[in-house]
Design goal:
Number of domains: 1
EC number: 1.1.1.100
Protein name: 3-oxoacyl-[acyl-carrier protein] reductase
Structural class: alpha/beta
Order of helices and strands: HEHEHEHEHEHEHHHE
CATH class: Alpha Beta
Largest sheet: 7 strands, parallel
CATH topology: Rossmann fold
Organism: Rhodococcus aetherivorans
Shape: globular
Strand content: 5-15%
Keywords: Oxidoreductase
GO molecular function, one term: 3-oxoacyl-[acyl-carrier-protein] reductase (NADPH) activity
Helix content: 40-55%
């Protein structure tokens, strides 16, 4: 049995470090969100998996349950107040409260700014930024009822630097996610709530594949260029992002709030 040098936690304890936690998850039907659902449940958390596609949320929830996890799956349109309220209400009714929130829902899209129509801009901000604001607004009262908790938002390397991929709407929305997270961290620290922003680089998910498909006539060339600028010279697996989320939700990250964690294989270090 391995003992960590810093905390004295055994490896057996570490696998259940989220035992008793109740987590509300958006965008849990695929990609990073699905990996997060599996990882949190494996570490002992009860997880409310939500997604804009109810069938996707239910499918992931069924898989997590089959693996022994405590989970529910439901629809949640993160840009719609009523949908978010209903999903949060269902999670609280099932679990008796909430201790954690993870906002993975997101979309991408490309267009030069002068060619971008208002609908394109508003759709991306509705999902990525408003779709972070509404779930946080709805869940924070429950974290306060629980005397605190942990929030993990999912931004992007675009929260930190310009991607130069002709994605101004996406870049603006993800910059907003980071600043919203920092605002929450400062506003609620005294009341026991931590908030941190995971900023992934290139990840092998449906969103990234869709984004790459929109990068002009040579999507593979674009992907190769990003990989070439990544120190580890590869894309990440969604599970690698999920492990960071689990850490941030746990007490192992008890002195972290307002942080932007660049899990990007060294892309922003280049």
């Amino acid at each position: 049995m391995t003992i960590t040098e810093t905390s004295g936690t055994t490896s057996a304890d570490l696998t259940q470090r989220l035992a008793g936690r109740r987590v509300f998850l958006t965008g849990g039907g695929s990609g990073i969100g699905a990996a997060v659902a599996h990882r949190l449940a494996a570490e002992g958390a009860a997880v409310a998996v939500t997604d804009a596609r109810e069938d996707a949320a239910v499918e992931v929830a069924d898989a997590v349950r089959a693996a022994g996890g405590t989970v529910i799956g439901s629809v949640c349109d993160v840009g719609d107040e009523a949908s978010v309220a209903a999903a949060v209400e269902a999670a609280v009714a099932e679990f008796g409260g909430l201790d954690g929130v993870v906002t993975c829902a997101g979309i991408s899209g490309t267009a030069m700014l002068h060619e971008m129509d208002l609908g394109h801009w508003e759709r991306i901000l509705r999902v990525n930024l408003t779709g972070t604001f509404l779930p946080l607004r709805a869940t924070i009262p429950h974290l306060l009822d629980a005397d605190g908790g942990s929030i993990v938002t999912v931004g992007s390397v675009a929260s930190l630097v310009s991607t130069n991929l002709n994605t101004p709407g996406y870049d603006a929305s993800k910059g907003g996610v980071l600043q919203l997270t920092r605002s929450v961290a400062m506003g609620y620290a005294a009341r026991g709530i931590r908030a941190n922003c995971l900023c992934p680089g290139l990840v092998s998910t449906g969103l990234r594949a869709n984004s790459a498909a929109l990068q002009g006539p040579e999507p593979e060339a674009t992907r190769s260029r990003v990989v070439e600028n990544t120190a580890l010279a590869r894309s990440a697996d969604p599970g690698e992002m999920a492990s960071v989320v689990a850490f941030l939700l746990s007490d192992d990250a008890s002195f972290m709030t307002g942080a932007a964690i660049a899990a990007d294989g060294g892309l922003t270090a280049n």
